[in-house]
């Protein structure tokens, strides 16, 4: 028997759950793209996008996904033959690095593996003795494959301690609107994110924020192409400059509604909600792991992102658990990503829970209870009672 009929929860780490309010805002025919309400809403939309990133600098909106934003950030700042440094904390660091390589940029990777943070002293040392002339350091805030969160102010401090002029470019695809991020205060030069994770809007839009130092790099960057050029988009003379063509009409309405929701709740409260829900997930998982082989991928709490949690089942039952949760109970967990190759039997050891954006305590408690039921049903060894630990966190923090 399946008990999955009713409201389901897509708990993969992006795309995230789209709120009804956002869907309703998008449910209309396209408006005039030359005059009227849509062009008029842009200045306030741009202001809200800057506010959610805690920056007074510039932002561009692209009709693309995160991969496109990766390329946009690189093309506006780099030239072929330039060298960059990537301290890697998971699959997404390597993905961004690969896009740079295809552009003709030379990439040096410092690989910190799949569970461990960047060694900031080693990063400073590498930059101090830099004989490669690195133009940029690429960091991923929360790596969605490992759920490891990088201390971005510490990366800034490591670059500054070396007295190095490289741009600091940060991927906040999985963390913006979930974990605290303050672009200007943290000294981030370029930051990127997409619509479909913490910003609660369907996939299709991505954004690059950049400061004036990064914009000066744009003067000489020869990787820049017409479609990714951030100049006309961030400083438009006419409405169509924002998008280099037809505007993504319905997405803009959805995004407006999502940013309104964030502003109504308050960004600090949005961050606190994600932190509390993440602590509930960790409390359950840490308890389950006191028997059997289940464990969280990131061992130290302060290194865990608040929007996604990567699990190691320690057995091939992880895939069975995912399927059970989806088929029997309407909860879709994320596959493990970047831990191993799909043809490796260990592929079935990993899974992830997305808790980003439009998520509440009842959704998380429901998801955790469903996971506990699933572990029992598929025979994934664990200590029963993790849900009680999560409930205690919610009771104490709400
Ligand atoms: C989702 C994600 C991406 C890629 O985004 P796409 O929209 O799938 O191209 C890049 N970086 C991080 C950290 C992500 O979570």
UniProtKB/TrEMBL annotation:
Keywords: Pyridoxal phosphate, Pyruvate. Its cofactor is pyridoxal 5'-phosphate. One of its GO terms (molecular function) is alanine-glyoxylate transaminase activity. Residues 58-287 form the Aminotransferase class V domain. Substrate binds at residue 352. It comes from the Bacteria. Belongs to the class-V pyridoxal-phosphate-dependent aminotransferase family. This is Alanine-glyoxylate transaminase/serine-glyoxylate transaminase/serine-pyruvate transaminase. It comes from Silicimonas algicola.
């Amino acid at each position: 028997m399946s008990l999955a009929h009713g409201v389901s929860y897509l708990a993969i780490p992006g795309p995230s759950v789209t709120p009804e309010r956002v869907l309703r805002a998008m449910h209309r025919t396209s408006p005039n793209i030359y005059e009227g309400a849509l062009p008029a809403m842009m200045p306030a939309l741009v202001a809200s996008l800057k506010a959610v990133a805690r920056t007074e600098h510039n932002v561009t909106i692209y009709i693309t996904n995160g991969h496109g934003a990766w390329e946009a950030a690189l093309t506006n700042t780099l030239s072929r033959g330039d060298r960059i440094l990537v301290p890697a904390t998971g699959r997404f660091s390597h993905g961004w690095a690969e896009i740079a390589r295809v552009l003709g940029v030379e990439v040096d990777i410092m690989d910190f593996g799949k569970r461990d943070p960047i060694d900031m002293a080693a990063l400073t040392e590498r930059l101090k003795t830099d004989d490669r002339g690195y133009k940029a350091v690429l960091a991923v805030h929360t790596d969605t494959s490992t759920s490891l969160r990088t201390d971005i102010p510490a990366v800034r401090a490591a670059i500054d301690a070396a007295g190095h002029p490289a741009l600091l470019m940060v991927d906040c695809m999985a963390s913006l609107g979930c974990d605290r991020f303050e672009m200007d205060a943290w000294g981030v030069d370029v930051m990127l994110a997409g619509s479909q994770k913490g910003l609660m809007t369907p996939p299709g839009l991505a954004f690059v924020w950049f400061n004036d130092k990064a914009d000066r790099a744009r003067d000489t960057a020869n990787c820049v192409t017409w479609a990714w050029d951030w100049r006309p988009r961030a400083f438009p003379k006419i409405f169509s400059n924002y998008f280099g063509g037809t505007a993504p009409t319905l997405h803009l309405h959805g995004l407006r509604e999502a940013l309104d929701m964030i502003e109504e709740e308050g960004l600090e409260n949005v961050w606190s909600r994600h932190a509390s829900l993440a602590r509930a997930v960790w409390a359950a998982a840490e308890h389950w792991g006191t028997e059997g082989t289940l464990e969280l991928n990131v061992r130290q709490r302060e290194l865990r992102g608040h929007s996604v949690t990567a699990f190691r089942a320690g057995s091939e039952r992880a895939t069975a658990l995912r399927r059970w949760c989806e088929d029997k109970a309407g909860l879709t967990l994320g596959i493990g990503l970047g831990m191993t190759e799909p043809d490796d039997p260990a592929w079935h050891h990993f899974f992830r829970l997305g808790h980003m954006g439009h998520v509440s305590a009842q959704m998380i408690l429901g998801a955790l209870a469903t996971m506990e039921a699933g572990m029992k049903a598929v025979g994934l060894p664990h200590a029963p009672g993790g849900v009680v630990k999560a409930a205690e966190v919610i009771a104490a923090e709400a």
